[in-house]
Amino acid sequence: MRVAIYPGTFDPFTNGHLDIVMRSLRLFDSLIVAVANNPKKRPLFSVLERIELIKASLPKTGGVTVDSFDGLAVDYVRAKGGGVIIRGLRAVSDFEYELQMALINRRLNPEIDTIFKMPSEEYSFLTSTAVKEIASLGGCVEGLVPPAVVSALRSKFHT
Ligand code: ADP
Into how many domains does the chain fold? Predict the structure, then answer.
């Protein structure tokens, strides 16, 4: 059985990310959502917090595990015995960066391929950055992120 890996920052996990997870489960029996530990991005939530929020947001149907990784995504994928990286494509604006990443990753390991999934239109504008901005200003993020993330943002920003 081939394992697919969905790597990302997930700071925090949104309904757009969840949409990609659900679509990926239609293609793969086993999916690992892998939180990148990249302190350079100065995340709002720690890796452990992000993992817990993703776990609390996933359906209980199984097939998905949550993990974190340091270093190169291709090295992590290889270590997990996976052959596929899942990435989300929201709009044309994502394309250039994602194409570059996919080709670099292919160069680093030609046996690992990237599959792009498009989210439902209602999430095509949704970014973790926008969610943090709205929440920090006291705005409502319900419907944009899973309930556990709504609560976590409220406690982070004391709103
Ligand atoms: P990264 O820093 O790795 O881009 P993100 O958490 O921002 O981490 O995104 C992880 C992946 O999820 C990326 O492939 C990104 O394009 C995708 N993604 C982010 N937001 C959405 C969304 N609203 N709908 C679909 N895919 C998304």
Answer: 1
